[in-house]
Design brief:
By secondary structure, the chain is mainly alpha-helical. The chain is built from 5 helices and 2 strands. Strands 1-2 form a two-stranded antiparallel ribbon. Helix 2 crosses helix 3, helix 3 runs antiparallel to helix 4 and helix 4 crosses helix 5. The radius of gyration is 19 Å and the shape is flat.
Length: 152
């Protein structure tokens, strides 16, 4: 808690805005919580490393197939102001392949006894959350770049 107050005092001395402070704290907590989640999952759960790989596999295949499908077949932009190259076609293909391939991995490598419907639903949710995460992160980066350009 003392550390937090130190940053707030420094921020007011150097005339930083509340938005700058919030972005800094969000970035630090985002990284720390992500690493903590990975370490706890690996250490506390049986086959924890396979669960962590499952999440990375969903993100990897969603992003990879969204990129290539958008590049090859993309005609309709998803959100041009945030990410001008992301397309609806790429997003849909990323969702489909980001669900099918990780589901096969999970059923054969992690837990063969799990309900097929459950793992399909979980991978769909993870794929959608991953795509929203990409867009939110790009929006945050755009805000920071725009703010920095305005203050130069």
């Amino acid at each position: 808690m003392i550390c937090c107050w130190k940053y707030i005092v420094i921020a007011f001395i150097f005339n930083y805005t509340i938005i700058n402070i919030a972005i800094t704290f969000f970035s630090l907590f985002y990284i720390a919580i992500s690493i903590d989640f990975i370490v706890l999952t690996i250490n506390r759960l049986d086959n924890g490393h396979l669960y962590v790989w499952s999440i990375f596999i969903v993100a990897f295949f969603t992003d990879t197939f969204a990129y290539f499908a958008g590049y090859l077949f993309g005609k309709h932009k998803l959100i041009p102001k945030v990410s001008p190259k992301k397309t609806i076609e790429g997003s849909i293909c990323g969702l489909i392949m980001g669900t099918i391939i990780p589901t096969i991995y999970y059923i054969y490598m992690v837990d063969p006894g799990i309900s097929f419907i459950l793992i399909i639903l979980v991978t769909i949710v993870l794929s959608i959350v991953g795509q929203f995460g990409d867009l939110i992160f790009k929006l945050l980066v755009l805000y920071i770049v725009e703010f920095k350009l305005l203050t130069i």
